[in-house]
Amino acid sequence: MGSKCRSPKPPMSPGSSTSPKPAQPAKLEKVMSMNGGNGECSYDRMSVVQAYALNSLQPSLAEAVKLMSLPRHPSPLRIADFGSATGRNAFAYMDFVVNSIRREYQARNMIMPEVQAFFNDLPGNDFNTMFGLLPPVKGQADSEGAGALVREYFAAGVPGSFYGRLFPKNSLHFGICMHCLHWISQIPPQVTDPESELYNRGSCWIMGGKPSIARAFAEQSKADFRKFLHSRADELAPGGILQCYLSGRTDLADPTNQTIPERRHRFLAGPDFESAWDDLIAEGIITEETRDSFNLPCYVPHVEEVRDSIDSVGGFEIVRLELLEELNLYPDDARMSMLQNPKKCAKFYSSWIRALVEPLMAVHMGAECTDEWFVRHERRIFNRCRAMLGNPQEQEQYKFLTADFLLVVLKKL
Ligand SMILES: C[S@@+](CC[C@H](N)C(=O)[O-])C[C@H]1O[C@@H](n2cnc3c(N)ncnc32)[C@H](O)[C@@H]1O
């Protein structure tokens, strides 16, 4: 196959046409989204993985609700989901939060006000698919089958980056942000500048890479986290609650150790993620530059890095801040039985990654090369799973579809 793939140079910043640098990557908030629609690699279908996490989060959400200051009827109760993607999970979280709050009003013998629910994401998010899935209003559903969600809130979409203000001051009572804050707002500019010492040559992420590059990601993550907290501190009413759930890591000292080495396939950019690029380069489908100029916009922080940001921003009491290790992202028996079927396992895992990063990769190197990339990625996972067949110990160590998370619950002072 010839080189059908673009080898994109990042667009130059305005006014820089006579100067060779600095080159700026496309503004991430313009191109970042999960896979839309409801095809087999859509976020809608593949976010069953993130959805499973709600099981382990329900107790902490219910506890957090007990601590919030409840607005008095008739002024509305406002809840926001930051980074809701295309909806299915967001509606499940919202349903759980609204029902928990209802129980709290009952327990305190108070009349519950009407609820406004806001679903935020970047403008590229598939809000159409999302609102097509919006549960029917209670009492107006054609068929309210057992288990089907009905909604007892007024819903609105809020496009924009959660690394800035999205709501008026003191207007929110409860905020959630699930599986989002490890996505940083931009790749540090030096990392995509071929003339910089921090250019990420030979890799598409920071795991196991140069410490200086990982530190640049850490700085970006810290700056983003602070902006997120500053904005939420403005928007939440006193006594309001903010609950966040994001990928977390165990090794504070070494940010290149985004997950400990023997578990490094557990975050999406494991060895198979890197190797799929190598395969495309070896086959002449893309150039090294195409891989080197792509960087996964993720940083997995340690709990102390998050604490540092919270302390420096102020305005919140920390209710919970902890690492939850080795949470299952899929039922245990289903995870283990999928491992006995390498084809199924590879398809599932690769489709899950595709739901998360295909739009970013397609902007970078075009749809055709992205398709080729996922063929290699799936093949790599297939070979890995096949090699583990008949070796239960290795399969156990693979920790397929498990991950470490940070749970952050804050109360606005
Ligand atoms: C993995 S999805 C999580 C979706 C959903 N909360 C869940 O738990 O299934 C992460 C979402 O965060 C969104 N996101 C990333 N950066 C964002 C930003 N700066 N502002 C708003 N949304 C952002 C992405 O577009 C994506 O939809």
Strand and helix layout:
Layout: H1 28-31, H2 43-46, H3 48-67, E1 77-82, H4 88-107, E2 115-121, H5 127-132, E3 154-159, E4 172-178, H6 211-235, E5 236-247, H7 271-282, H8 288-292, H9 303-313, E6 316-328, H10 332-339, H11 342-365, H12 367-388, H13 392-398, E7 402-412
Parallel strand pairs: 1-2, 1-4, 2-3, 4-5
Antiparallel strand pairs: 5-7, 6-7
Helix pairs in contact: 3-4, 6-9, 7-12, 11-12
Bound molecules: S-adenosylmethionine.
Characterization of this structure:
The chain has a seven-stranded mixed β-sheet, with helices on both faces. Helix content is 41%, strand content 15%. The protein has a domain at 42-259 and 295-330 and 400-412: 3-Layer(aba) Sandwich (Rossmann fold), CATH 3.40.50.150. Helix 7 packs across helix 12 and helix 11 packs antiparallel against helix 12. The model is unreliable at 1-24 (pLDDT under 50). The protein starts with 27 loop residues before the first helix and ends with a strand. It has 413 residues and is an alpha/beta fold. Helix 5 (127-132) links the parallel strand 2 (115-121) and strand 3 (154-159).
